[in-house]
Write a structure and sequence with these properties.
With 424 residues, the chain is α/β, with parallel strands linked by helices. Helices cover 42% and strands 14% of the residues. The chain has 18 helices and 13 strands. The strands form 2 sheets. A 7-stranded parallel β-sheet has the order 3-2-1-4-5-6-7. Strands 10-9-8-11-12-13 form a 6-stranded parallel β-sheet. Strand 11, helix 14 and strand 12 form a beta-alpha-beta unit. Helix 2 crosses helix 18. It starts with a helix and ends in a 9-residue tail after the last helix.
């Protein structure tokens, strides 16, 4: 007992020392004379599914005369000895002018060459990044700005995503909503009080992206066109603390339902980590995963979607069936029904998510899931008006102009650094 208390005290002491070091670095950075000319912003990309969270910010900056934007691509596995860079290959294949972070001599591209005024990370986890690109290293010479790669649903989730190791170095956080801002202001209150850190709520880039891509959404699975399309997004883990996946609970139900109803289609979009995680935990063997893939591939009205982007398929679906996931926040903007599958985990939902769930069909078991599918398939959707009212109240101005507001705020802050604190 005493030993645990001593460990907690030591851990807290290390955090205090690390935070003070971060604040000193941010203060020095803000006092530096910035390079004359346009504001220079680097987007350090690695986790491709999160690109739609910042893509509109990047596009907006690229189209401004007073700003320059750069994409620096970090491979998904930076510890690999292979010099290939899957992230760079993806961006180049999609027409982006990107920089390969992994140099041919095995070293990492030196961001100092770009003289960045600010750097956005694709996700706030230093453990996935090479040492030169961790937040503490970046904060020594530039400002770390951040947009979350996914909306947090629970208090446990927001604590894990807005982790101390990364966010202690964040000078400006563009929160999706007041829940995120409130957590940041409370957790990093010393930096906020000193004018070294700030959180701003200027709208949601991902919702803006959703709305802007609706008209051009491409159906990558035309063979699934039917009178009723279900999209299923099971969570990646069954862990009793952070899990909540209902994959094993509803896999046969949903796949058998589609097999028995040829006028219904099922698009399975599991979390990118799910199948590999189940192999790692022993919950599935590699042969079982392959059998699952084969069943999806061989069915005329089922498909497994493992592409990097998923938002276009939201507009092609008639209903979303999901576990606890940030996709609830994104899919909600389509106005279409959501069957939200509860789990045995007692999630402590954030206030905005609690409200949002009042517009979803909450399923506690297989009978509930099948009941709601039958109801929606028949054309009955009693929650439709509730969803419309919630969308108007919860999203407000988040659906348009967000990226422009963020860019205006970013440029104002960075231009003001030599004049005083930019976090006013």
């Amino acid at each position: 007992m005493i030993q645990k208390q001593i460990q907690r005290i030591r851990c807290k002491a290390r955090e205090i020392i690390a935070y003070r070091r971060s604040l000193r670095a941010m203060r020095r950075c803000q006092q530096m004379q910035r390079m004359p000319g346009p504001i220079r912003v680097v987007f350090l990309t690695q986790y491709i599914p999160s690109w739609n969270k910042v893509e509109r910010i990047y596009d907006t900056l690229k189209n401004r005369a007073d700003a320059e934007a750069f994409i620096v691509c970090v491979p998904s596995d930076p510890k690999s000895s292979d010099l290939q860079n899957d992230t760079y290959d993806y961006f180049v294949s999609h027409g982006y002018d990107a920089i390969n972070a992994r140099q041919q001599d095995g070293t990492w591209f030196d961001l100092h060459q770009l003289h960045p005024d600010a750097v956005f990370h694709s996700r706030p986890y230093n453990a996935f990044m090479p040492a030169p690109y961790t937040s503490s290293e970046l904060a020594k010479y530039t400002n770390v700005y951040q947009v979350l790669y996914g909306v947090c649903m629970t208090y446990g989730g927001i604590k894990a995503v807005m982790n101390f190791d990364f966010f202690k170095d964040v000078a400006c956080f563009y929160a999706e909503n007041e829940d995120g801002k409130e957590f940041f202001d409370r957790r990093y209150k010393i930096g906020v009080r000193q004018g070294l850190q700030t959180a701003q709520v200027l709208g949601s880039p991902v919702l803006e992206y959703m709305i802007q891509t609706q008209a051009d959404a491409k159906d990558y699975y035309p063979a699934l066109r039917s009178s009723f399309r279900m999209m299923w997004t099971p969570r990646w883990s069954t862990d009793p603390v952070i899990g909540g996946s209902n994959f094993f609970r509803y896999r046969d139900l949903l796949m058998d339902y589609a097999a028995a109803n040829p006028d219904v289609s099922l698009l399975l979009r599991p979390h990118p980590l799910m199948l590999n995680n189940f192999i790692k935990t022993g919950e599935m063997t590699e042969s079982e995963v392959q059998a699952f893939r084969d069943r999806c591939a061989n069915a005329s009205n089922m498909a497994l979607d493992e592409r990097k982007d998923y938002t276009d398929q939201f507009w092609c679906a008639d209903v979303l069936i999901t576990d606890a996931s940030a996709v609830v926040f994104e899919f909600f903007v389509t106005g279409k029904p959501i069957i939200y599958c509860n789990s045995e985990i007692d999630f402590h939902y954030l206030p905005q998510i609690q409200e949002m769930l009042t517009g979803c069909y909450l399923a506690d078991n297989a009978e509930d899931v099948e009941k709601y599918i039958h109801m929606l398939r028949s054309g009955s959707d009693p929650m439709r008006d509730t969803r419309q009212q919630l969308m108007a109240r919860l999203y407000g101005s988040s659906l348009s102009g967000c990226s422009a507001r963020i860019c205006e705020d970013l440029i104002r802050r960075l231009n003001s650094e030599t004049e005083g604190s930019p976090n006013a």
